[in-house]
Amino acid sequence: MDTEKLIRDVVQNVIKRLKSELPQGREVPGSGQRLDVKAEEKEGPAAVGVETIRASRREVPQRKIVCGVSVRHVHLSREHVDVLYGKDYKLQILRELYQPGTYAYKETVTIVGPKLNAIQNVRILGPLRDRTQVELAKTDCIILGIDAPVRASGDLEGSASAVLIGPKGAVYLSEGVIRANRHIHLSQEDADYFGIKDNQLVDVRVGGPKGLTFNNVQVRVSPEFKSEMHVDTDDANAADLVNGSLVEIVDASCISPIVPAMADANHTPPPIPDSSFAGEITDTNILKSMSVFTPVKGSSVFKFFAGSQPETVEGKSSPEGSGSGSSPGSRPGKILITVNDLDNYKDTGIKLGPNVILTPLARDEALARGIKIFQ
Ligand SMILES: [Zn+2]
Asked: Which of 2, 105, 158, 235 has its CA 20 to 30 A from that of 20?
């Protein structure tokens, strides 16, 4: 087999396809620029390597997609609003979201999982739905001890459970907790431009120093949508994405495995030692949002998760006997000091150490109140 000829044939086929996809002189919608495939043509096939094709593809001005970062949130049913906030309670709209007809409410809920940790101030998004749905990132799930599956919105069969707490009551949700899949809301106009159909999976490339390519991004097409990619906070943080970042839908065929310089196909990486930080949460911003909620044994929240980790409920007082914010179960022996705990330290001051976590807000507030902080 003449490998060189085979490669040349493949390259020529790709060039032919590119030319047919991008007719000469066609105006790229929205760019005001005209495509010119002539330059490439003049060089002739022999001069066009794979690198040139990649380069020429990158030069094609692409429409970018705006990114929306979905922080953990809940969609509630009417029935559950009644339980959490009281019968016929009318939720107040805080602000409209980018997708037409969707909004954030002023009201929030607290979520508790089987570790009996809680995450407070979880935003309720509108409009109300037939079924309550909780959307978390993996990091949230680790804090709560919830193994939520990756699902498309609305696909809740057999998903994870949690307890939601509002000012008037608690909801014991036996299913409805998911990690939302990466998805793009695509306007009909952009769907036509890209030639993408509803429910198609695409890859999405992010540039910059933390750039990466997201796979398995589900595209939803509707004339009602404004084009926007939704990712959770873990995906966004991994790629340094913020609301409004621009990303690019790419053709998966551009990505191929690197050819190894040395033959070592059977190489397996060594196992990670136990002392690694895998699975440990050290982000104080996340800890800051965790509450000091401690259901007592025999309480209904405890019963809902009974059998999961009962030992975390008892004996949770921290070694120093103060820092009430130490989170049960997940960080044994560590003390989290939040603004709410500062009263306990107003006479003694705060002694920092490897096991003491002082939130940035608490530090500022302690200094403002004249509470001493020792190293
Ligand atoms: Zn979405």
From this structure: 2
101 CA distance to ligand 1 middle (Å): 12
Distance 183 CA to ligand 1 centre (A): 6
Instruction: Mark whether 241 and 154 lie in a shared domain.
Output: yes
In a domain, 353, yes or no: yes
Residue 158 lies in a domain: yes
pTM above 0.70, yes or no: no
List the domain range (segments joined by +) for residue 324: 315-375
How many Å lie between the centroid of ligand 1 and the Cα of residue 268? 38
Whether residue 149 is found in the same domain as residue 70: yes
Measure 78 CA to ligand 1 centroid, in angstroms. Answer: 21
Exposure of 244 in the CB half-sphere (CA atoms within 13 A): 0
Number of domains comprising the chain:
2
What distances in angstroms separate CA 95 from CA 107, 121, 123, 247, one per listed residue?
A: 12, 16, 12, 25
Query: Could you identify the residue written with the tokens 């196992």?
Result: 271
pLDDT 10s digits, 293-328? 555 667 777 778 765 543 433 334 434 334 444 444
